[in-house]
Design goal:
The structure holds two protein chains of two kinds. By secondary structure, chain A is an alpha/beta fold. Chain A has 15 helices and 32 strands. Chain A has a nine-stranded mixed β-sheet with strand order 17-16-18-19-26-25-24-21-22, sandwiched between helices. A six-stranded mixed β-sheet of chain A has the order 6-5-4-7-8-31. In chain A, strands 12-11-14-15 form a four-stranded antiparallel β-sheet, with no helix packed on it. The C terminus of chain A is likely disordered. By secondary structure, chain B is α/β, with parallel strands linked by helices. Helices cover 41% and strands 27% of the residues of chain B. Classes of the chains: A alpha/beta, B alpha/beta. At the A-B interface, strand 2 and helix 2 of A face helix 8, strand 10, strand 11, helix 9 and strand 12 of B.
Chain lengths: 672, 307
């Protein structure tokens, strides 16, 4: 049996209350000189055993009633007939199924993938629940509702197969709510199956407040049962792709691959990694010593475009042992700078295209010409000044949604125009000037990915040496939709006082960036280029990737640019769906490599209490897998009502025994 | 001293009301002088008793000549003798009689009954004696009919200190043996002793032709046993203590108590003992009135039966 509020079991201390009262009563006796002692002694002799038995029964009734009430307060759960009888059977069961890559982690004891274990538990729960409930499946990869005959039918369904995507739990709950609003079911239970991975649940997502309010206010009442499988496989290693750079030397192509190997419990080991380049396999030994190791390798190929993969030896999650990459083809690296301050614009142009020759090109444009900026093959638009409004805003939104990157910098003159209708829901606030000799320093930045990530050889950018004397405040405007709320601004780098230096907001396939200082001498030393140039280059490469003939994308986030594109699987054998499966794909002269989202490799499960806190006011139960596996608790119901009923029955019995004792005396006789 | 004692036991108004009634014996008595009670012997009263055959030596003045004229046989005409009675008041002053409920001690109640009866009996010409049974021994005052005899009786009653345990049946046997002639024996006690020996004592009394009357004195607490919290009961006749929750044993106590009362009542009825159960929350005048009237009815019925 599982308890939702085990802390309330301290209430079992109330068991001692009847005992203490009994002992106190024993001490509170009154003395009386008595004449008819012979009858008293006879009565004591004959009634002692029976009376003691009754007294013990009364005491046991009181103590047990209190214990049961304390137990009921701890909100016990039970499966099987007990849970169904006292918990009630729902009209509809919505199964939210996590198909993320991390669900392929093997259970340390059962040697079964969490996803398969979840299917087994769901089937068991369905059998216990019996007929009478309608089952609907919502999987994390497609968010498409599918009616089920029962949880037993899940086994073998395509909709619950393993994927290389991440799960977006706010989106899953939102899809569940949308389905409920559309179909208006009766009493509904939501069975959420998850490994509670923090990057999937997004506990900081502000959408949770809205979701919780809607679930709590839903009529009839909705219960959420989370079947948690948070076990971490300490021996598991995950391989992720950081970057691929291809350089042409004569007829040959040098492909530099940067990868990251992560593991929950690091220990030094030499790992034979199988590398493949255009079908040629080789085994390379890499040393794994820390929780995160960055590995680099340069391979040479005769082919100017192609693909490759790396594979770790088998471990507790076979799904995260591979990475795939593609390379080749000339990618047009075109950028554009829109700047109200000419000097700043010039520095930014140089950062985007340090040399006018080669593949990189950067144009300067006026703000009113923004409509023309988004055309062509521009991968990056740098916007220094007040964010645009009106048609330019619409154009920039469309540009970013299609995969472009826009980088905002503040106006050099101070506060910009109100950005209520800005393309990224933000506005520049007041400019703050640092005290003399105490410039603003960046204390934190995201070094694992993004514009400030480490270099291919693992070295950090000199962000910490950056000194800003002026900075503009970044105000995020109130989002107008749940989607906007879910995709808010994320700080990638922050000053020592927590104010953002660089922030990011994803929209569609593209990204907005906002940097709060300028590459001007009276603002910061960004103009020395040590940080500015890598930042700008990475943003440009990110935005230009969509024009590349070889695209390394994230599985689940990638969408085909055109429905007419036909992508043929290249590796690994057996893959068929580029929307959910990692691998290498080929379409005409274009190459596509899809890998798991990097967050899937970071094993940080939420605690059950954290999950419950995401849904305040909702009847939410989190049942951990190890309990479920032993007790079949996937379909557990609260049975506090049973405990209350038993407690009341005991109190009635206690009252009956007590009233028997104090029955009014029958007069023995009277005066004649 | 006697005056104080008398005032403590007696209520003049109660005595005035009760003195209009006569305390009768239910059985023939053997007195010293003429009195209001039926005698066990034939006497010279005007009330006809019976005929019997003449035997030589009989006084011929009692021959019924009319019967002789009709039947040619000599029959002696006998008349009832009226005599006084001797009354022995037996007071149980053991420790249990000291129990004091909300209505006072049982012993005080018994003292009032005994003193009032002594006063009434003496003033109707009967002899009254007193036997006090305590844990320290038995104190006897032989019956006398002089009003002055009330003084030592009241003094003795005033001096009674309850306490200790006594063998009440044994004491009653002694009383039965000690009184040589038929007498009215009135016992004031709570009879907290085994019922069988007590009934044996009653039987002994009746065997000795004594007219036995019992005042069974009980406190309402002893009858109802209605306590609502744990108690430490200390025996009034010994140092024995019992700590218990009365609620646990009330039912058994009442069963034992009622069985004892029923046994005593049954034994009394079997041997013609006048049994009066008295709960001390009732007024003693009421109790005595009922007692005297009941005896009057019984005596009248007995006299009618004999005629």
């Amino acid at each position: 049996m599982t308890l939702l509020q085990p802390a309330l079991l301290w209430g079992l201390g109330a068991l001692t209350v009847p005992l203490i009262i009994h002992l106190l009563n024993r001490l509170r006796f009154r003395s009386l000189a008595w004449g008819a002692m012979m009858f008293l002694v006879r009565a004591a002799r004959s009634s002692t055993r029976r009376a003691r038995l009754r007294q013990w029964l009364i005491l046991a009734c009181r103590a047990l009633a209190l214990a049961l009430l304390a137990w009921a307060a701890a909100r016990p759960l039970a499966g099987g007939w007990l849970g169904l009888t006292f918990g009630g059977r729902p009209d509809t069961v919505l199964i939210l199924f996590d198909r993320s890559a991390s669900m392929e982690t093997l259970d340390p004891r059962r040697r079964l993938a969490k996803r398969e274990e979840a299917l087994r538990l769901l089937a068991e729960a369905g059998r216990r629940n019996g007929a009478g409930s309608r089952y609907v499946l919502l999987d994390s990869a497609t968010l498409t509702p599918q009616a089920l005959a029962g949880p037993e039918a899940l086994v073998g369904m395509t909709a619950v197969r393993a994927t290389d995507t991440a799960a977006d739990w706010p989106a899953l709950f939102r899809a569940a709510l949308d389905w409920m609003l559309k179909n208006k079911p009766g009493r509904t239970d939501i069975w959420a199956v998850s490994d509670l991975q923090s990057s999937n649940w997004l506990p900081d997502d502000r959408a949770w407040g809205d979701l919780a309010a809607r679930l709590a206010g839903f009529s009839p009442r909705v219960r959420v049962r989370v079947l948690a499988l948070p076990a971490v496989a300490p021996a598991n290693r995950a391989l992720g792709l950081r970057a691929v750079r291809a350089g042409h030397t004569g007829a040959k192509c040098a492909v530099r691959v940067a990868a990251t190997c992560q593991q929950a419990a690091p220990w030094p080991a030499k790992l034979p990694v199988t590398t493949t380049l255009n079908g040629q396999r080789a085994v390379v030994d890499f040393v794994s010593a820390a929780a995160r190791d960055d590995w680099n390798q340069t391979l040479t190929s005769e082919q100017t475009a192609g693909w490759g993969s790396w594979e770790l030896p088998a471990d507790d999650n076979p799904r995260d042992n591979q990475l795939y990459f593609v390379y080749g083809g000339e990618t047009p690296l075109h950028g554009c700078v829109v700047a109200e301050h000419p000097a700043a614009g010039r520095w930014l142009q140089l950062a985007v295209a340090p040399s006018a020759t080669g593949a990189r090109r950067c144009d300067l444009a006026a703000p009113d010409a923004a409509g023309a900026l988004t055309a062509g093959t521009r991968g990056l638009i740098v916007w220094q000044g007040a964010p645009p409004a009106g048609p330019a805003r619409v154009d920039l939104n469309r540009y970013v949604t299609a995969g472009g990157v826009v980088w905002f910098l503040p106006p050099a003159g101070g506060r910009g125009a109100p950005g209520t209708n800005g393309p990224a829901d933000f506005a520049w606030g007041a400019v703050e000037t640092a005290a003399a000799a105490r410039p603003f320093r960046v204390a934190f930045w995201e070094e694992r990915e993004g514009p400030l990530e480490r270099t291919a050889d693992g070295r950090n950018l000199p962000v910490a040496q950056l000194a800003a004397t002026r900075r503009a405040a970044l105000h995020e405007l109130s989002p107008t939709s749940a989607v906007q709320r879910a995709a808010g601004w994320v700080t990638l780098a922050a000053y020592t006082d927590g104010q953002p230096f660089l922030a990011r907001r994803n929209l569609g396939r593209g990204t907005f960036y906002a940097c709060t200082t300028l590459p001007l001498p009276d603002w910061s030393d960004l103009d020395d280029g040590r940080v500015l140039v890598p930042m700008a280059q990475r943003m440009l490469e990110q935005g230009a990737a969509r024009f590349s003939k070889a695209e390394n994308a994230v599985c689940g986030e990638w969408r085909p640019a055109s429905a007419q594109d036909i992508w043929t699987p290249v590796a690994p054998p057996g893959v068929s769906d580029p929307l959910t499966q990692a691998g290498v794909w080929h379409s005409g002269d274009r190459w596509l490599a899809l890998n798991r989202p990097a967050a899937e490799d970071i094993v940080e499960p939420l605690a059950p209490a954290q999950v419950r806190r995401l849904l305040p006011g909702v009847d939410c139960t989190v049942t951990e897998e190890h309990v479920s596996a032993e007790n079949g608790a996937a379909d557990q119901n609260e049975i506090w009502a049973l405990f209350v009923l038993l407690g009341l029955a005991l109190l009635v019995l206690e009252a009956y025994l007590t009233l028997q004792e104090i029955a009014p005396p029958q007069p023995a006789g009277g005066a004649p | 001293m006697a005056g104080d004692a008398q005032r403590a036991f007696l209520d003049a108004e109660v005595l005035a009301r009760l003195s209009r009634l006569t305390i009768n014996a239910c059985h023939p008595m053997l007195g010293d002088v003429a009195g209001p009670h039926r005698s066990a012997t034939r006497g010279a009263s005007v009330e006809f008793a019976e005929y019997r055959k003449y035997v030589p030596g009989d006084d011929v003045k009692h021959v019924d000549w009319r019967v002789y004229a009709r039947s040619d046989r000599f029959y002696m005409k006998e008349f009832e003798a009226d005599t006084n009675l001797r009354c022995a008041l037996v007071l149980d002053a053991t420790g249990s009689m000291a129990y004091a409920g909300r209505h006072g001690r049982k012993l005080d109640y018994a003292l009032r009954l005994a003193a009032t009866l002594a006063h009434l009996l003496v003033h109707q010409g009967d002899a009254v004696g007193l036997t006090v049974i305590t844990g320290r021994g038995v104190r006897d005052i032989p019956p006398r009919r002089s009003p002055a005899h009330l003084r030592p009786i009241f003094e003795t009653l005033a001096a009674v200190q309850p306490g200790g345990a006594a063998d009440l049946p044994r004491a009653l046997h002694d009383v039965a043996e000690k009184i040589r002639r038929r007498a009215l024996v009135i016992v004031f006690s709570d009879f907290f002793a085994e019922a069988a020996p007590l009934i044996n004592a009653f039987q002994h009394m009746r065997f000795q032709k004594h007219d036995l009357a019992l005042f069974h004195l009980l406190d309402p607490d002893e009858v109802q046993f209605d306590f609502d919290r744990p108690m430490r009961f200390t025996d009034l006749e010994s140092s024995f203590q019992l700590i218990t929750d009365p609620a646990l044993m009330a039912a058994d106590y009442r069963r034992e108590f009622d069985a004892h009362l029923a046994t005593l009542q049954r034994g009394s009825r079997e041997f013609g003992v006048d049994y009066q159960r008295v709960v001390t929350d009732h007024g003693y005048e009421q109790v005595l009135t009922a007692f005297i009237l009941q005896r009057l009815r019984t005596a009248t019925a007995a006299a009618g039966g004999a005629a």
